[in-house]
Amino acid sequence: MADVEEEAVVGEEEGLEEEEALGEEEQHGEEEEKEEEEEEKDPDMPLNEEVIAESLSLLCKTGDGLAHAYVRLDVHERDISCLNSLTHLLTLKADNNKLISAKLDELPYLQVASFSNNRIKTTEGINHPLLEQLCLNFNELTLVDGLDPNKLSRLHTLELRGNKLTSTAGICLPNLKNLFMAANQITKLEGLDQLEHLATLHLRDNQLENLDGFSENMKNLQYINLRGNNITDMKQIKKLMVLPLLRAVALSDNPIADEDDYRMEVLIALRRIERLDKDEYTDEERQEAQDTYETRRQEELAAAAVEQPEEVAGSENEVVVEDES
């Protein structure tokens, strides 16, 4: 009898375990379905007065000095279409949303605006007269258009990393000082000659093969990051000679960086630069580059001198033939 009772108890326990296991599986399955539904559902979380009140900070005097207003707004995962009424904003951070445009009515005091990690496809509608810093990193931009230099005359820093840009065209902002365009698909340098005040240019991890597009009008450019492109010919580096204040260049992770004497050849081409990649040039390197440059220049002059008499002799023979005829 005892054995039968034990078997019955064991059987009941096994049945309970099976039921619990089935229950857990069903619960787990329901949870997964809920998660999938939540992922598929696009939550609509528009801004309201309560959310805006929680997101505003930094109380300052208004532009006319007659009142006070909160001037910083930091919102995430929200629809920001109702921000046009916040005319006293100085700083707007709208990162990590689902925006397809950064277009807003003119905000007369806005100085810093960040729209990173959205789905923005156009730069039109950004016309804030005091704007100094604009960040549009990691969006879906394929071109830059609609940036009015007259309305963005104070913009000094523009960040466009991680988009789908294939060209630098469309950035007609003469007062711009810092331009960040890394991790795009850029193959052409266009419109850079209009950036006469540009000091820093980041073009890392693009698809550049040549450096056509730099201009002597870019008389303030001091640093260029070209790391991780497809530059294979050292002759392309000589195209940077038109930049009078260029002091530092990053060229690692390009095919030319694997060439023998890469570091010395860059210095021979650009004798004014002070740093290549992360290392500054030493006085010894600088002297060696100067000596090599002078030696090559003398060799070129000597070769030209040898070719010139042959050309003169050839032209004289042509004249004699003409006289005889």
Automatic annotation (TrEMBL):
Q: Where is this region: Disordered?
A: 1-47, 303-325
Q: Does the keyword rRNA-binding apply?
A: no
Record keyword Ribosomal protein present: no
Q: What is the lineage of its organism?
A: Eukaryota, Metazoa, Spiralia, Lophotrochozoa, Annelida
- Keywords noted in UniProt: Leucine-rich repeat, Repeat
> Any idea what this protein is called?
Leucine-rich repeat-containing protein 23
Q: Where is the composition biased (Acidic residues)?
A: 1-42
The record's annotation in PANTHER family points to: LEUCINE RICH REPEAT CONTAINING 23 (PTHR18849:SF3), LEUCINE RICH REPEAT PROTEIN (PTHR18849)
